[in-house]
Design a protein that fits this description.
Layout lengths: L1 H24 L40 H11 L5 E8 L2 E8 L2 E10 L5 H13 L10 H18 L7 E6 L2 E6 L2 E6 L3 E2 L7 H16 L22 E5 L2 E11 L20 E3 L8 E6 L5 E8 L7 E6 H6 L6 E7 L2
Parallel strand pairs: 9-13, 10-12
Antiparallel strand pairs: 1-2, 2-3, 3-7, 4-5, 5-6, 8-9, 9-14, 10-13, 11-12, 11-14
């Protein structure tokens, strides 16, 4: 009888020990929201350059169907396509968002002293590497990481349609959207990393990079910003000073119907050459024509006469017009180079 009682006691102790070992080996994985929305970004969820998230692929959720467990693990194991590089830019705190190793957007923060700029960038990188949130949510590192988390979540769920990524103008701001959802708003503190110097062109470039890098299928580039008002038309004006002058007004272009014909100076017109027609500048004059809307410029040689439509100051060849993004007419500035 004593042996039997002792055996029961040992069995109870062993069962308790085994039970504790099994319980200790089960660790749940945090569930994603059922509606596919982006979870709130916390310090623990920041995805930064050189930081690799730890994923346990050998753990299952208790009470969850095997198929659902597999789908959740597949999403968790999808590699991140977006990351953040903290740095300084013109003595300002900055954080640049990269998608598939291409810089897409830079968030700018406060100005720091020149001697403290390197230290500031180093501190930001330490915070990022340790996945620690900065104290101020308006800091560039925090804003960049919120956007990176959203990009990576969209990629994991496979819900991005590149054709639905667009840009529109509203209240002097450029807004990049995916469908009806706003991805980011460009302003003085959110810019294209390699700016072109023209806000509209920067917005288009940032949007087209996202269309190409985030979309599940290849999407063609946009050439226009939606809802962008046309620049006001200006009357041609001629300004002369100190032997140099420039002219400002409306430019047009001519091409297929005139290709191969004789120009006013006796040359054969080639629509693919960098030439232009002007009413009175001497033949052979070289000018720089700048599109005042986009900031793009092209150098052309005057070899023809025109244009004769009211208010227009220069007629560009098809190639020259294409070089400065002219689809039809545009307000330009003409600078004489020789």
């Amino acid at each position: 009888m004593q042996y039997k009682r002792l055996g029961n006691a040992v069995a109870v102790v062993l069962a308790s020990t085994v039970g504790l070992s099994i319980a200790a080996s089960i660790k749940p994985i945090q569930a994603e929201t059922s509606n596919g929305s982006v979870p709130e970004v916390t310090a623990a969820s920041l995805e930064v350059d050189n930081a690799q998230p730890e994923v346990r692929s050998d753990v299952a959720k208790v009470g969850e169907p095997a198929s659902q467990q597999a789908a959740t693990l597949d999403e968790a194991e999808t590699p991140a396509i977006a990351k953040v590089f903290p740095h300084t830019a013109d003595d300002r705190q900055a954080a640049t968002v990269y998608v598939r190793n291409i810089p897409v957007l830079t968030f700018l923060g406060d100005t720091v002293e020149a001697e403290a700029a390197d230290q500031s960038a180093t501190e930001q990188r330490k915070l990022a590497a340790n996945k620690v949130a900065p104290p101020d949510a308006d800091q560039p590192l925090w804003k960049a990481n919120k956007l990176v988390a959203e990009f990576n979540q969209l990629n994991r769920t496979g819900e991005v349609n590149g054709e639905e990524i667009s840009v529109r103008w509203e209240d002097d701001l450029y807004i990049i959207e995916h469908g009806e959802d706003i991805l980011v708003t460009l302003d003085d503190d959110t810019v294209l990393p390699d700016t072109t110097g023209a806000a509209g062109e920067d917005a288009l470039q940032a949007t087209n990079r996202l269309r190409r890098l985030l979309g599940q299928e290849e999407a063609g580039p946009l050439t226009l910003v939606a809802d962008l008002p046309a620049p006001p038309k200006k009357e041609p004006q001629l300004i002369a000073s100190g032997g140099s002058f420039y002219e400002q007004g409306e430019a047009s272009w001519y091409g297929p119907g005139f290709h191969g014909r004789t120009t006013a100076n006796g040359e054969t017109y080639n629509q693919w050459a960098m030439t232009a027609a002007h009413k009175y500048l001497p033949f052979g004059t070289v000018v720089r024509v700048t599109n005042l809307y986009s900031g793009a410029a092209v150098v052309v040689r005057i070899n023809d006469r025109g244009p004769y439509a009211h208010g227009r100051v220069i007629d560009l060849s098809a190639a020259a017009a294409d070089a400065i993004g002219m689809g039809g007419i545009a307000n330009v500035r003409i600078d004489i180079l020789n």
